[in-house]
């Protein structure tokens, strides 16, 4: 139906990794530090484990439906009406994520690099990039991820190395300072949302086979979890808990610290290159996911005609919130909480239905056998 | 209107109908009749046919041996006779069929008609076939080449000194044929030495081919198409009276360049020879590098008018058959009037003409072609073009030079890293300069920023205009330096750049920092080895200038993002353009860095070659041996 | 035909899109370098009537152009102006009433806050600086003895063309001598927000020719060469740039409470572990009228041990110094192993004495912990709340702080030993 092309292991990992890394450049690490104080790094590890578990749900679901994507699987399991509803929820999730991300990345770029440029211009640029990218198709997006991951890793590595000279180890004390359960109840659950599982299930065919799908996702999530943990540790060590929780763009603030001698200072714009790239890619991946879910749900031949409509929708939604704070609150208090439904609850439900169905079938089979 | 046609032909061409007034083949009418006859009487016994033929054949012996068409003695010359003479000329294999003809005609003697006039003969003559009548042939040749007007083609009429003498003519092209060899190998033997043999054995044409002509390549052709193709390529065609075939003697010889240094792809270390404009020399140069029976050269003719040879060279036990099929399919499917250079051929072969990146690699170095053929690629050589096309190609191939391979791995890696830097500088620097100056002023050290600002203080233009002025004038110098005639060309480029730059700075039109930016960019773009890639970077540079001026680094990233998509969606003959990197495939570490030669164990994975192994895992046999020796002792 | 129509449609789409983009982008937000005035240094002062006075130093870019031409080099390379307004941020707008260009703070290297202002609290400046995108957290922030306006107006670097470079270079000397701490906005913010200890800032000032009495007094008091009682503004000297960088301003929370002299600063840096190297002069233990000069650097970070005991906290700090001889005036052979060890012992005692004096001073003058010992105290704590509600100043004031110095003079310089000259007057 929709020709998505295939990609190999490296491209798959890069794609999911970049998608998962996208939020570390925004306010999330700061929120994490605010929540977890100097235990935030441990909570980041915890988040990683939770994400792996979430992905495991998707893996077990897709293991039972290896010849379809999650879109067809949900229709098979829930029937046509419920299935379509479920798929529309998936699509809605990605559309809202895209809208929120366009705005957040737009605001981030504006704050960090282009203070006097109108926000709409930056958002148009971001949307346009996403459309162009989706027009080329998933295979190309994956390849571009593979190319840019080199530079992104390079940027992260250089930043981490450069920040080491500002590290003050005593910032990490007192160790075990906060009750983890309390943190989770207070708001850590806002940071465990994982859209990559759903994304990977939507583009399941492109991974080639289920084993590839499994290892790609697990590796990508682990690597990004490690990077996120390292970043949070460095934030705590270099800025201290209080300063780190004040920041709007902690990664950017960290890169403002970097200086090698008198010449190479104030290099945050160089790091801007890497994180803007991640933003562009994340936006195009999300736009792709939302259009392709719609196209698959309605059994269209091609997702491309939907691109304009969906991106326009996302753009219009994203321009509605009046200020940065609103979008931040929307994101943290509503999106990341309600987003758990399509990313965890629904796949889990599907898994359960799938298990029950199978048992039913088995029972039917055995009862039929018994009757005979 | 038939009468008018007849009249016109009679007026325009007046052959001696006494001698030539017979036809060789049946008219369409007769042909139809024949067909009918054949259907009716297919079961006639052969023997009786033969007997009848013998009876109806009162011909002089020696003439029949010469296989010359008989002269028609009178108007009564029967149709039967003609068919028989014709039949005798035919090769023995088709004798049976011919006999049938004769037999048929015998049966239709009642329907005798007048022999055809010469113009009728001409009319009935299949224009593609060589006629036994010299004059018909000559007429046909004159028609094909528009001879009295077309001065390049020369018809030399002469008589072959056999007994009895036979008229003949030779046609050759002035300019592409070697006069000396025509004189020595065509005219001299035919006119002088052909009477060495007292008698002529067998067919005259065979005799001439076997015993008279001493050229090294002599072919016999029926069809004008082949003959014309040969003559167009410098051969000499000899038409002999009474033979419906012509001899094509290879007398190619034209002025051409010798093998010269590579001009555009120079290396310090390595062979110093380049292709020239002769296809055969070029294939020879490649064969000189790969002396293998497995190296196949296929020839395809391209161009309805130009008829140029295209050679496809590959190692047949290595190359991916699908790739080969695709290359041949593309070349053979070309329906063009003419292809003048491999540059045009390249454009016909590539799949995305509007994509900025070149999808075929052209090189003038035989060693480079050989290297790529060894790795499983295919070389396409067009006759008359000193560049070979290598397909498929990746961006990394285009960024490599042979120096990288010929030098030791560390040196090669160093060269490549330098070139990587140059690659990025050549399209990003002006854009980045603009985005720094306009948006990210905090990036540069304070002193440098103040210097830049100070230098810009007296410049009346915005920096975007300044950069564009400078870039355009640099491109102008580049283009003009190339086009300036003669020896001043090189100097005018440098002098122009120096003077222009100096004057522009003194006139406060541009700032001196910008001169550095533009000069470094220009230099770097020259460091990119492949000319087409250079071009793509030069053009992209302007896009980055605008993006950088509009949105700073965000614009640059936008540009990089789109450019990456353009490049990674691109394929060259099925191979992704950024192949060993994305999609990530196994490589021998020969992408950005260069591993030592002995670790090139595999051919590039993306080519899917038949033989994956390039060399055994231990290519240096002595390493194994010496370690063995150590173990023993 | 349909294909052609499609193609035309596509082109129309593309052209429309391009028009849209070009109209919407159109170089917005780009600022040419000649639209901007680059502010190199800012000074904040309190004026009468609750007014704020802000002084800025703007680079004159023309002076930096190398393109010869008319009078570029003759122009002064920077210009200092000041404006009064009820709010410090209002002054930014007032500057443009007489300044032709938009002010750009992206290359501001130096923030100077006047003494009076600093005593009222500096937090409002710090948060504003860290909120403002153009201003940099790693720019230096110094407290000026006197008025910041005077400092910026009178600061005329002799060797450098711009104050920016002057600041960068003079901060390098801090690493060599250690008489003033290099404090960036980030550093102060970090101490202020993350820690309970007292922030410090470098002290700068203008050499005052009028206050000779104080200089005289200090000169008279100075007998020990290890002591350097000078602070910015009172260094006994003649000539040179009027700006001086020496000493430290000490804060309680964000309010300035006192200053430390040059040698006190050095001791403070040593105890903090931030001293890179310094030249120490001590009186020769054997000859009273001769001095010994050694160039020492901090061999490694100090070891700090904190013990919580029933009667209070005990802090034990060991600092390590190592270096080489610069001068031995007396000609005594201190290069020998035994003599050197004795000298090192004496020297260590002197440093420890200085440290004790400084710690005593901080407790006496109610400065609070300027050595950031609370960083190490964190390890003793259990929960975040405990740390948040820690009353560190009290603990510090009651703590018993013990400093041990370990000196190792590793190299004698180029001389292996000192031999006495052959004197004509024998003793």
What do these coordinates show?
The complex is a heterotrimer of chains A (372), B (633) and C (427). Chain A has one domain: Amino acid/polyamine transporter I. Helix content of chain A is 77%, strand content 1%. Chain A has 15 helices and 2 strands. In chain A, strands 1-2 form a two-stranded antiparallel sheet. In chain A, β1 (259-260) and β2 (264-265) form a beta hairpin. The two termini of chain A are 42 Å apart. The mean pLDDT of chain A is 89. Chain B has 633 residues and is an alpha+beta fold. Helix content of chain B is 50%, strand content 10%. Chain B has helices spanning 2-12, 17-20, 28-40, 46-55, 61-66, 79-89, 95-107, 118-124, 134-145, 179-191, 204-212, 224-232, 279-289, 321-332, 342-349, 366-374, 395-399, 402-406, 409-438, 446-456, 463-483, 488-506, 512-527, 531-568, 621-632; strands spanning 153-160, 166-173, 218-221, 236-240, 246-249, 295-302, 308-315, 361-363, 378-382, 388-391, 571-572, 575-576. In chain B, the strands form 3 sheets. Chain B has a 5-stranded antiparallel β-sheet with strand order 1-2-4-5-3, sandwiched between helices. In chain B, strands 6-7-9-10-8 form a 5-stranded antiparallel β-sheet, sandwiched between helices. Chain B has a two-stranded antiparallel ribbon with strand order 11-12. Mean pLDDT of chain B is 80; it is low at 15-26 and 54-113. Chain C has 427 residues and is of the alpha/beta class. Chain C folds into 2 domains: 32-263, no CATH class; 276-418, Nutrient germinant receptor protein C, domain 3 (GMP Synthetase, Chain A, domain 3), CATH 3.30.300. Chain C has helices at 2-25, 88-95, 115-120, 123-131, 148-154, 163-177, 185-194, 212-221, 262-272, 337-364, 374-377, 384-388, 392-398, and strands spanning 36-46, 52-59, 78-85, 102-104, 110-114, 140-145, 200-206, 243-252, 255-260, 277-283, 291-298, 303-309, 312-328, 400-411. In chain C, α9 (262-272) crosses α10 (337-364). Chains in contact: A-B, A-C, B-C. The interface between A and B is medium-sized, with 40 and 28 residues. Chain A: Pfam families: Spore_permease (PF03845).
């Amino acid at each position: 139906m929709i020709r998505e092309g295939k990609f190999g292991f490296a491209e798959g990992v890069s794609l999911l990794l970049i998608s998962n890394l996208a939020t570390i450049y925004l306010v999330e690490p700061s929120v994490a530090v605010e929540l977890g104080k100097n235990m935030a790094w441990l909570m980041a590890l915890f988040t990683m484990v939770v994400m792996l578990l979430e992905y495991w749900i998707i893996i077990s679901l897709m293991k039972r439906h290896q010849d379809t994507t999650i879109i067809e699987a949900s229709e098979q399991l829930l029937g046509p009406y419920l299935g379509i509803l479920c798929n529309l929820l998936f699509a809605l999730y990605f559309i809202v994520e895209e809208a929120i991300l366009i705005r957040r990345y737009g605001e981030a770029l504006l704050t960090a690099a282009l203070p006097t440029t109108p926000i709409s211009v930056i958002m148009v640029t971001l949307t346009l990039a996403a459309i162009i990218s989706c027009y080329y198709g998933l295979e190309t997006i994956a390849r571009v991820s593979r190319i840019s991951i080199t530079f992104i890793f390079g940027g992260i590595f250089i930043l981490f190395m450069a920040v080491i000279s500002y590290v003050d180890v005593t910032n990490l004390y007192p160790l075990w300072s906060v009750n983890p359960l309390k943190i989770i109840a207070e708001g850590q659950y806002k940071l465990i949302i994982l859209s990559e599982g759903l994304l990977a299930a939507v583009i399941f065919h492109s991974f080639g086979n289920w084993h590839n799908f499994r290892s790609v996702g697990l590796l990508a999530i682990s690597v990004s979890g490690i990077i996120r943990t390292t970043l949070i540790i460095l934030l705590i060590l270099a800025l201290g808990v209080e300063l780190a929780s004040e920041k709007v763009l902690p990664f950017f603030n960290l890169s403002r610290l970097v200086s090698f001698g008198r010449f190479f200072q104030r290099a945050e714009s160089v790091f801007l290159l890497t994180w803007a790239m991640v933003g562009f890619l994340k936006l195009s991946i999300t736009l792709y996911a939302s259009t392709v879910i719609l196209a698959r749900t309605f059994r269209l031949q091609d997702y491309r005609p939907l691109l304009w409509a969906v991106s326009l929708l996302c753009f219009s939604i994203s321009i509605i919130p009046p200020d940065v704070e609103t979008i931040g609150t929307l994101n943290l208090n509503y999106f990341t909480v309600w987003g758990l439904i399509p990313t965890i609850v629904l796949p889990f439900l599907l898994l359960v239905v799938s298990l029950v169905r199978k048992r039913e079938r088995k029972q039917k089979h055995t009862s039929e056998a018994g009757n005979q | 209107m038939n009468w008018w046609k007849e009249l016109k032909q009679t007026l325009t061409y007046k052959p001696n109908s006494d001698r030539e007034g017979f036809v060789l083949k049946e008219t369409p009418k007769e042909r139809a009749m024949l067909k009918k006859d054949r259907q009716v009487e297919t079961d006639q016994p052969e023997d009786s046919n033969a007997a009848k033929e013998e009876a109806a054949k009162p011909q002089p012996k020696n003439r029949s041996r010469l296989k010359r068409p008989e002269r028609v003695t009178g108007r009564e010359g029967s149709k039967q006779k003609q068919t028989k003479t014709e039949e005798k000329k035919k090769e023995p294999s088709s004798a049976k069929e011919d006999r049938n003809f004769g037999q048929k005609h015998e049966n239709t003697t009642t329907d005798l008609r007048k022999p055809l006039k010469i113009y009728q003969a001409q009319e009935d003559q299949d224009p593609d076939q060589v006629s036994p009548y010299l004059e018909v042939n000559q007429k046909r040749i004159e028609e094909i080449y528009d001879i009295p007007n077309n001065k390049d083609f020369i018809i030399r009429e002469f008589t072959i000194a056999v007994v009895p003498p036979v008229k003949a003519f030779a046609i050759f092209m002035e300019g592409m044929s070697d006069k000396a060899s025509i004189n020595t190998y065509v005219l001299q033997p035919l006119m002088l030495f052909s009477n060495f043999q007292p008698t002529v054995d067998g067919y005259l044409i065979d005799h001439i081919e076997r015993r008279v002509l001493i050229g090294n390549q002599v072919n016999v052709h029926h069809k004008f198409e082949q003959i014309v193709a040969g003559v167009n390529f410098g051969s000499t065609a000899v038409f002999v009276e009474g033979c419906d075939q012509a001899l094509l003697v290879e007398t190619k010889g034209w002025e051409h360049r010798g093998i010269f240094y590579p001009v555009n792809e120079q290396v310090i270390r390595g062979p110093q020879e380049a292709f020239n404009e002769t296809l055969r020399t070029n294939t020879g140069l490649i064969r000189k590098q790969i002396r293998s029976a497995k190296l196949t050269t296929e020839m395809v003719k391209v161009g309805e008018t130009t008829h140029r040879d295209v050679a496809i060279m590959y190692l047949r036990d290595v190359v991916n058959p699908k790739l080969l099929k695709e290359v041949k399919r593309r070349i053979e499917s070309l329906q063009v009037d003419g292809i003048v250079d491999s540059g045009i051929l390249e454009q016909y072969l590539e799949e995305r003409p509007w994509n900025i990146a070149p999808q075929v690699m052209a090189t003038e170095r035989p060693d480079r072609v050989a290297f790529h053929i060894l790795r499983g690629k295919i070389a396409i050589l067009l006759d008359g073009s000193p560049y070979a096309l290598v397909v498929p190609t990746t961006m990394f191939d285009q960024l490599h030079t042979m120096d990288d391979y010929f030098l030791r791995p560390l040196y090669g890696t160093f060269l490549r890293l330098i070139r990587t830097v140059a690659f990025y500088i050549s399209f990003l620097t002006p854009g980045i300069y603009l985005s720094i100056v306009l948006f990210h002023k905090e990036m540069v050290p304070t002193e440098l920023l103040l210097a830049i600002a100070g230098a810009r203080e007296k410049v009346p233009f915005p920096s975007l205009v300044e950069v564009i002025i400078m870039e355009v004038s640099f491109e102008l110098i580049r283009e003009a330096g190339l086009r300036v005639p003669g020896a001043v060309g090189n100097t005018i480029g440098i002098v122009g750049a120096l003077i222009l730059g100096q004057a522009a700075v003194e006139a406060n039109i541009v700032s001196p920092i910008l001169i550095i930016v533009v000069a470094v960019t220009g230099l770097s773009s020259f460091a990119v080895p492949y000319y087409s890639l250079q071009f793509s970077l030069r053009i992209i540079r302007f896009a980055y200038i605008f993006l950088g001026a509009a949105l700073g680094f965000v614009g640059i990233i936008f540009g990089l993002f789109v450019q990456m998509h353009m490049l990674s969606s691109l394929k060259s003959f099925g191979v992704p353009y950024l192949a060993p990197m994305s999609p990530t495939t196994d490589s021998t570490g020969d992408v950005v860095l260069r591993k030592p030669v002995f670790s090139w164990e595999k051919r590039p994975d993306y080519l899917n070659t038949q033989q994956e192994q390039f060399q055994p895992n231990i290519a240096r046999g002595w390493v194994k041996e010496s370690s063995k020796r150590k173990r023993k002792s | 035909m349909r294909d052609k129509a499609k193609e035309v449609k596509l082109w129309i789409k593309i052209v429309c899109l391009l028009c849209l983009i070009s109209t919407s982008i159109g170089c917005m937000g780009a600022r040419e370098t000649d639209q901007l005035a680059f502010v190199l240094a800012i000074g904040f002062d309190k004026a009468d009537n609750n007014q704020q006075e802000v002084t800025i130093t703007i680079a004159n870019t023309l002076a930096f152009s190398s393109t010869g031409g008319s009078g570029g080099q003759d122009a002064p390379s920077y210009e200092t102006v000041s404006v009064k307004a009820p709010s410090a941020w209002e002054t930014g707008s007032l500057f443009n009433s007489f300044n032709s260009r938009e002010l750009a703070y992206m290359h501001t290297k130096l923030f100077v806050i006047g003494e009076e202002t600093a005593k009222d609290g500096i937090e409002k400046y710090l948060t504003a600086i860290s909120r403002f995108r153009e201003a940099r957290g790693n720019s230096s922030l110094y407290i000026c003895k006197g008025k910041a306006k005077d400092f910026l107006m009178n600061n005329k670097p002799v060797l450098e063309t711009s104050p920016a470079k002057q600041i960068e270079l003079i901060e390098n000397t801090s690493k060599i001598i250690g008489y003033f701490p290099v404090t960036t906005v980030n550093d102060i913010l970090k101490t202020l927000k993350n820690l309970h200890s007292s922030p410090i800032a470098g002290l700068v000032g203008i050499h005052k020719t009028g206050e000779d009495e104080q200089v005289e007094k200090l000169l008279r008091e100075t007998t020990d060469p290890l002591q350097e009682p000078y602070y910015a503004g009172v260094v006994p000297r003649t000539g040179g740039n009027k700006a001086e960088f020496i000493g430290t301003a000490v804060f309680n929370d964000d309010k300035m409470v006192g200053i430390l002299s040059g040698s006190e600063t050095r001791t403070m840096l040593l105890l903090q572990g931030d001293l890179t190297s310094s030249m120490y002069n001590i009186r020769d233990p054997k000859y009273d009228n001769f001095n010994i000069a050694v160039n020492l650097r901090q061999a490694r970070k100090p070891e700090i041990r904190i013990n919580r005991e029933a009667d209070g906290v005990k802090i034990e700090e060991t600092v390590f110094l190592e270096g080489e001889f610069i001068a031995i005036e007396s000609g005594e052979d201190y290069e020998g192993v035994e003599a050197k060890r004795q000298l090192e012992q004496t020297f260590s005692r002197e440093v420890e004495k200085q440290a004790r004096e400084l710690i005593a001073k901080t407790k006496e003058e109610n400065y609070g912990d300027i050595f950031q010992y609370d960083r190490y105290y964190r390890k003793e704590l259990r929960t975040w709340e405990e740390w948040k509600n820690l009353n560190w100043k009290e603990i510090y004031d009651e703590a018993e702080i013990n400093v041990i110095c370990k000196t190792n003079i590793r190299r004698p310089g180029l001389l292996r030993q000192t031999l006495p000259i052959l004197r004509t007057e024998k003793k």
